[in-house]
Structure formats: C-alpha cells, structure tokens
Amino acid sequence: SSIATAELLNYYHKHRGIVLGLQQSTSYLGGIFWVWILNQSIPQLGIRVAQIKLAAICAASLLPACIFLDRSPGVGHKHPAFRPLQNRIPLKETIKYVWSLVRQRLRTISWKYQLPVAVLHCAMVLIHIGTLIFCFFLIPAALNRLDDGGVGTMIVAVCQGGEFLGRWAIFYLGDRWGKYVCSSQRCFNTLSAFAASTAGMIALFTRAKTSVSCVTATFLFGFSQGGLLVLGAACLSEMPDAAPGDRIDALAVAYSVGTFLLPPISARLMLLGERFEPLLWVACGAVSIGSVVVFLLSFWVEWQ
To answer: Which of 82, 126, 161, 181 shows the smallest number of beta carbons within 10 Å?
Structure first.
C-alpha cells in the first residue's frame, strides 16, 4: 500500500547507510553461497557464475548511485529535501518515475557541482563497460589455469568476503556519524591502511605457500579495496564552500567508481600467478601509503 511504501521510504532516508549496506552486501553473500554450491558439482560452472554475477552487478550499477543517496531533511541549504512522488512507487510507470528521480536529484545539486558530477558519472559508465569486457575476455584465460580443486572459487569467495565487511564498515561509519563524514573517512582510511599493509606483509614473507596465508592475504586485500575508493571520496568531499549534501553526492560518485573498478583489478592480480605476485605487493602498498597520506593531509589542512 502507499502508506507502507511511504513508511519504508522514510526509514530508508533516515538510515540510508544501513539500508544501502544491506542491499549491496547481500549480493556478495549470495554470490559466495551460489559459487560454492555450484563448484561442488560443476567447478567450471561455478567460475562462470562468478563472472556473470560480477558483470550483472556492473550492468545494474549503470543507474547512478547518487539518485538514491538523497540528503536527509534539513541537510544543506537553498534546496528542498527529497520528497517521494505521491509517497508511492508506481509500478506501471517505472521509467517515468526513475526519470523524475533523476531530474529531482539534479535539482537538489548545486549548479556549481553538476558538471563535475556528470563527468564522473560518464567515467563510471565507461569503467563499467570496461569491467564487463574484462570479466568475459581477460579473466577466463587466467581462471583456466586455476581449475584444480576450486582454488579460483576460493579466491573469488574470500575476496568477496573481505569486500563484504569493507562495505559494511564504511556504510556503518557513514550512517553512524553522518554529520561527520570526514571523520568516518579518516577512520576507514586508517583501517584500510592497516589491512592492506598486513596483506602485503603476508604475501611478501610467505609467498602465499600455505592455505592459511593465501586466505588471509586475499581476505585482507578484499577488505582494503574500500580504502582506495575512500581516497577519491576524501579528495572530492573536501570541496571548499560545499554544502553537506553536495559532499555526500561526491562521496556517492566516488564510491560508485571505486567499488566497481577495484574488484576486477585485484582478482586479475591474484589470478595471474607467482610471476606477477610483486604487483599484488605494489597494489597493497599503494593502498596503504595512499590511505595514510590522505589521512595525514586531511589533518594538515585543518592545522593550517
């Protein structure tokens, strides 16, 4: 009913971080479960399902994420708070409703930042198209060499498990301390830096010879993927003279770009084999050093 829909939308806008975290992270849990089930009977089919699932997530995300990340009532200035159209979602007019959301979303963003947001969304679409090509043409060659006892499935599942916790961490921090977005970014940057550093150390000293070290390094690297996307978010959200709502918009765009760019890169590094293992160390080090640098720079700006 329209009343139930209105109550759901009100709860969503009040706790948008938790709702989005649940919505996106459950896809990872479902992916881990189905890949594991299919791998028990048809290993190669399990790998293919993992590819299709990743491609489906990328394709679905072509709808800009910040359409649904509207500001809460009272946040920002000069712009009205988001109001659901007639407090209901018309099932027969889905396309019209989404287009209305897009127009309403653009009206709530300051004209000063509409062009950068549009450019970043175009870049996000190109990244997603590249990710689709990457999944179906580049990863299979590496996966064919890992078809022994489900090693490839284990890597995919563990990496997604780390990404699952990383998503929950950033969404919880953003929802718990929504008024202090910069503080939550610093916390997650620091957390990601330690996770990436630990993953790099394990890969460096053990060369992932044992299953424990391989699982640990893969899990921590998947978790630290959130650090790089927060790097971009920290830079974008520190825009001078920007209203809180505009910073949230920039954070949503950076999150969308980072989320779908980093998993295929990390998967490619892990699946290329020992010959390219140093690239994994470099990637972990880049996440770690970059997170710490942005963490310190954010305080340096405040100290000046």
So the answer is: 126
- Specify the amino acid at residue 199: A
Between the alpha carbon of residue 21 and those of residues 12, 15, 36, 82, 172, the distances in Å are 11, 10, 23, 20, 8
Query: Which tens digits make up the pLDDT trace of 135-145?
Result: 445 444 444 44
What is the secondary structure of 87-117 as a DSSP string? Answer: GS--GGGHHHHHHHHHHHHHHHS-HHHHHHH
Please report where in the chains the tokens 């989005």 appear, as a residue. 20
Cβ atoms 156, 50 nearer than 8 A: yes
Cα–Cα distance, 125 to 56 (Å, whole number)? 14
Say whether pTM exceeds 0.70.
no
Residue 123, token pair as written in the block: 């870049």
Query: Which residues make Cβ contacts (< 8 Å) with residue 15, sequence separation at least 6?
Result: 175
